[in-house]
Design brief:
The protein is mainly beta. It is built from 1 helix and 10 strands, in the order βββαβββββββ. The chain has a 10-stranded antiparallel beta barrel. 14% of the residues are buried.
């Protein structure tokens, strides 16, 4: 799309296929792919993994969201992105998102279950070190898990 909003170009940093490795003992890697849709107006994310290994923690086996789908779009008034999320558990969420200066943030304020993700892109753009946190009250935050994205070539 020739007249694509310039803010959407920031999302080009995510486009492509990535290996995703949660930093959780006993879990294997999964993958996620970001592809442009509607001529570059929306960025679509699809994530999945092989079945969880027997070494995966029970909490992960009971609550695995995979596969996951999301669509990311721009609010040109604020410069923020919105992510519409759905997963295999039947969960549907709306997140807000930014990607600027090598920092990727995703968050949602929801009564009793606030979430936030912060990821830092490597200088070459081929890795993201990130962490998901959660909070019941929006004030006290606890680490949910850390993960690394590595761009596949």
């Amino acid at each position: 799309m020739d007249d694509r909003h310039p803010a959407l170009a920031r999302l080009d940093a995510l486009a492509g296929r990535w290996t995703v490795q949660p930093k959780v003992a006993g879990l294997g890697a999964g993958w996620t792919e970001f592809t442009w849709d509607e001529g570059g107006v929306f960025l679509r994310q699809y994530s999945d993994a092989d079945p969880l290994p027997p070494t995966a923690p029970q909490a992960w086996r009971d609550n695995s969201p995979l596969p996951v789908s999301a669509v990311i779009g721009l609010d040109d008034a604020t410069g923020e992105f919105t992510m519409l999320y759905a997963d295999a558990r039947g969960v549907h969420r709306v997140y807000r998102m930014t990607l600027a200066d090598g920092v990727w943030t995703v968050w949602r304020d929801a009564p009793g279950f606030n979430q936030r993700f912060t990821g830092t892109l490597s200088a070459d753009g081929d890795a993201v070190d990130g962490r998901w946190e959660m909070s019941a009250d929006g004030v006290t935050w606890n680490l949910d898990f850390e993960l690394t994205y590595t761009r596949e070539r």
